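=== RUN LOG ===
request id: a7f3
mode: sequence -> structure
chains: 1
length: 141
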Amino acid sequence: MTNRLARFALPAALIALSCLPAPAQIRLGVDSGALRIRIVPDAPPPMRVESRPSRPSRNHIWIGGCWDRQDNRWAWAPGRWEEPGQRGSRWVRAQYRREGGAYRFEPGHWSHQRLEEGEDYSRWHREHGRGHEKHGSNERD
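=== RESULT ===
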């Protein structure tokens, strides 16, 4: 009887747990590899006002919402609580800077993550006669 109960109870419990909503706006600081600096033709929309939910723990820091470039359009990435992926790491907010007739977009990232020039950004520099070596991935104009 106990074996039979366990055989049915465990799958039922797993199904029930998978139906529960995930905690919203909490992420672990996962290092997703290199992040790409992009060049885009249009400025991001105005920033949105957000409400900040309660802090889950003293290890979490608030990452404010920002406009993120997805494909060829701006998409709002809502704010969230996140734990740094490495001790002593700090959050660097997304940067949007006018460069020539376009906008340089650097996604938000942890200070230990590496920014790289995306192919579109490198190509734009070649086409507009700007020296690739002059615009390193971490330099500011």
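=== NOTES ===
The longest helix spans residues 2-18.
The helical segments are 2-18, 119-127.
=== END ===
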